[in-house]
Automatic annotation (TrEMBL):
Region entry Disordered, spans: 1-26
UniProt-listed SUPFAM superfamilies: HSP20-like chaperones
Stretches assigned to coiled coil: none
Lineage: unclassified sequences, metagenomes, ecological metagenomes
Residue ranges constituting the SHSP domain according to the UniProt record: 60-170
The protein, known as: Uncharacterized protein
Length: 170
């Protein structure tokens, strides 16, 4: 019987030699590492920009848009410029508080009989609204707005106590 057990016992096989780790990451981590390098190289914030297609899907398929603005604080006033291509003056509504400006408007949705199927449709149409916080308190009653060539320009005089002034450092 003892001889039978020896015959069934597994044979000893020498273990494979494994190279010592070199400090590099392993297979799947290499892939992730390369992917991250690619993403950061292209600009990792790109998916978070408002014009990225991801936002278009979240916001409802491209209906409407968020106007781009420039906001400038000057010594005695704040200047806000908003880019509103395709908007008519009559379709704009601007309201001002001492701390915010809200721009509302709409672009007409054109209904054209087009032959063929759209391959791409990127022109935003519909209603929009944007509220911008101001860097200083302003006198809303003295605000002045002008609109020309798709650019809305609003000049907002600062209230007396919010005006910037230089002081001498001694």
């Amino acid at each position: 019987m003892a001889k039978e057990m020896k015959a069934d016992a597994p044979k000893a096989v020498p273990a494979e030699q494994t190279p010592a780790p070199t400090g590099r990451t392993m297979g799947v981590f290499d892939d992730v590492d390369r992917f991250m390098d690619t993403v950061f190289e292209r600009g990792w914030m790109r998916p978070f920009r408002w014009e990225h297609p991801l936002w278009e899907r979240i916001a409802g398929g491209g209906e409407g848009r968020i106007p781009r603005v420039d906001l400038l604080e000057r010594d005695s006033d704040v200047l806000l410029r908003a880019e509103l291509p395709g908007v008519q003056r009559r379709d704009l509504d601007v309201s001002v508080t001492d701390a915010t400006v809200t721009i509302r408007g709409a672009t007409a949705s054109e209904k054209r009989a087009e032959e063929g199927a759209y391959f791409r449709s990127e022109i935003a149409r519909g209603a929009f609204s944007r509220t911008v916080s101001l860097p200083a308190k302003v006198d809303a009653d003295k605000a002045d707005a002008r609109f020309a060539d798709g650019i809305l320009e609003i000049t907002l005089p600062k209230v007396k106590e919010a005006r910037r002034r230089r002081i001498e450092v001694r």
